[in-house]
């Protein structure tokens, strides 16, 4: 396993275990809109290392393990970390924007950062086959990526389940943009995929404020 990927998994494990054992630690570093707006910006990063339970932790870390290897082997350690933390922050920032009027909204988990790594991997290898639950059918990476964006937008609008769809979506957008910036040649891997995903992202920023009115 790549040492940077392993280091991130260990850091997530240590922070998660500490959060399980110490409520004050958990509450001090989780994502909470009111606290962040009052100046505790560090929560936008630290919340990405806390998890609700072992299933939540295991799913995120297994996904990071699978896709992290792909992305880490294609970038330098510094650039891989840049993709990870830009995605984490993008997820937190978009979640903050979407929930800015709910001071008690809180969230935890590495899903934003992991979503960015997943998208980076898809852009590098758009032909890879992935499964999007609940469909038990392998889908090409470019179909998965487009479907993931649309599903996250729908989930955010419908407030589906106890899931931070806005953080997933923000992380995916962060991973998409920073990968394109660091490796413009990924555009040639599947120009149609890049243009469609880019179009969805642009439309989201232009018309996203109208989602709540639909």
From TrEMBL:
It comes from the Bacteria. Pfam families: Rhomboid. SUPFAM superfamilies: Rhomboid-like. The keyword DNA-binding does not apply. The keyword Transmembrane applies. Residues 39-183 form the Peptidase S54 rhomboid domain. GO terms for molecular function: serine-type endopeptidase activity. GO terms for cellular component: membrane. Belongs to the peptidase S54 family. This is Rhomboid family protein. It comes from Tenacibaculum skagerrakense.
